[in-house]
Design brief:
Layout lengths: L1 E3 L4 E4 L4 E4 L5 H13 L10 H42 L2
Helix pairs in contact: 1-2
Length: about 90
């Protein structure tokens, strides 16, 4: 469970420590991952707007990266199929 504090930190009740609002911080990224996976269930009270926006951006970037891999993989498979069909047709 997380809670935003007045000092621009996030308090982690589970591990009893404070997490700085710093995108380079590993624990901050874990908070974003928890927001993505669990939504409001991982936070005491409302998720602060800036944290929700950061989690939304991270999720979008992950989905975009997954999409790009899927498109690239699909293109490779289509090219292999097209090249094979063309080669097979040429030898008939």
């Amino acid at each position: 469970m997380f809670n935003k504090t007045e000092e621009n930190n996030i308090y982690c009740e589970t591990h009893n420590h404070y997490i700085p609002l710093d995108p380079a911080n590993r624990h901050y990224q874990e908070v974003l991952d928890a927001i993505i996976a669990e939504g409001a269930d991982c936070f005491t009270g409302d998720i602060p707007t800036e944290l929700q926006a950061a989690a939304d951006e991270k999720k979008f970037n992950q989905q975009l990266a997954d999409y790009r891999v899927a498109v690239a993989t699909s293109t490779v498979h289509r090219c292999r199929w097209s090249c094979r069909s063309y080669r097979d047709a040429a030898h008939r």
